[in-house]
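Task: sequence design from structure.
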């Protein structure tokens, strides 16, 4: 059993003694039978975040107390501490599965980080967040300053999730969720260091371009400190000023004003005749979507916001299929395919790479990777990994 787990079990046993409860009662509270709770308290079995949260609730203490005691929390324990606090919180029934997914990813992260040192990552970009009163302007200015700090110019960002993981140390996962939510963000608000644990879930039910926009939107919430540990971005309903700021940030980060205007200049002036004008508007929006890797919907809003297409153009394009708009821009097949890339399960890249290394070294089992990829078919996953060259050292 890992050292952190030994400490947790010791605190749990002490809390059990202080409470006067029986082992069986504690086990029942966490859904464990007599043998399981006995093995856990003997240090022969690890405790999951969900079990720890349930037992803490039963004992009348916080999961954080059981995890940390009076000692500082080591890096490997921090994801587990956050997972346990999440287990204590009550969420809507619709998002129960996503809360469980957060806990699952955090448990994998805690397990992997105990055995594998994360590779060095570039320093966090140094730029000041704007303090202007207008939230939308704050978002756009912040994105512009971030682009400048990273010397991106007006070029497209190929890998938004990779940029977030590398520079802001947040894990980004894409996977299907209810259509009512586009993204979720979890951040460790109790961390006292400069590198708090943060995890983003992006809904892959939506087109890939929208997924990229969602990841950038969640980054804005992270930068501006909008997150009270757990934040949900709904797909529908009225937009608050904080959400509009995050939208403006994502729009400027992914489709920089200067870059969109370059595209408009390449397309040329709008024709006067209505049919040709509609074709021109579709070509402009489709080219912006294809070049910058955003959805046609995002490109349409962006071009309208910058005054490049009229309200009439936008309404016409809103009634046109995304594929037709992309074809009008002579977009390649990759752009068309990305518009339809949905429902994938894509775990955080850095965590995946660490977990695969740990697996190949025999430090974690196939169950950990099955948990990462959210699959019950461990044997099938083992076979796929072997075909890709990932085989544990002891096999």
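Answer:
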């Amino acid at each position: 059993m890992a050292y952190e787990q030994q400490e947790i079990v010791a605190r749990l046993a002490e809390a059990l003694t202080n409470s006067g409860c029986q082992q069986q009662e504690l086990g029942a509270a966490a859904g464990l039978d007599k043998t399981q709770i006995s093995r856990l308290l003997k240090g022969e079995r690890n405790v999951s975040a969900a079990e720890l949260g349930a037992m803490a609730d039963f004992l009348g203490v916080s999961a954080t107390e059981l995890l940390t005691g009076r000692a500082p929390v080591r890096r490997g324990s921090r994801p587990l501490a956050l997972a346990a606090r999440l287990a204590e919180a009550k969420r809507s029934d619709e998002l129960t599965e996503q809360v469980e997914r957060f806990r699952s990813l955090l448990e994998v992260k805690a397990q992997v980080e105990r055995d594998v040192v994360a590779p060095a990552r570039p320093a966090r970009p140094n730029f000041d967040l704007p303090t202007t009163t207008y939230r939308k302007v704050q978002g756009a200015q912040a994105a512009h300053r971030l682009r400048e700090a990273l010397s991106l110019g007006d070029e497209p960002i190929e890998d938004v999730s990779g940029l977030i993981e590398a520079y802001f140390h947040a894990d980004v996962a894409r996977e299907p969720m209810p259509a009512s939510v586009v993204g979720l963000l979890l951040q460790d608000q109790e961390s006292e260091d400069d590198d708090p644990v943060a995890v983003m879930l992006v809904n892959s039910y939506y087109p890939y371009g929208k997924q990229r926009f969602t990841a950038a939107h969640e980054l804005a919430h992270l930068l501006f400190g909008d997150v009270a540990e757990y934040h949900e971005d709904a797909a529908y309903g009225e937009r608050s000023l904080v959400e509009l700021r995050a939208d403006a940030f994502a729009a400027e980060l992914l489709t920089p004003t200067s870059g969109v205007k370059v595209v408009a200049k390449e397309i040329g002036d709008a024709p006067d005749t209505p049919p040709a004008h509609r074709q021109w508007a579709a070509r402009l929006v489709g080219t912006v979507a294809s070049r910058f890797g955003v959805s046609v919907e995002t490109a349409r809003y962006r071009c309208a916001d910058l005054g490049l297409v009229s309200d009439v153009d936008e309404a016409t394009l809103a009634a046109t299929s995304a594929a037709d708009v992309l074809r009008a821009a002579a977009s390649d097949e990759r752009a068309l395919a990305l518009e339809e890339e949905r429902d994938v399960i894509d775990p955080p890249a850095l965590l995946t790479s660490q977990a695969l290394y740990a697996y190949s070294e025999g430090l974690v089992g196939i169950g950990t990777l099955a948990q990462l990829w959210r699959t019950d078919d461990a044997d099938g996953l083992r076979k796929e990994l072997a075909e890709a060259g990932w085989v544990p050292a002891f096999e």
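The radius of gyration is 24 Å.
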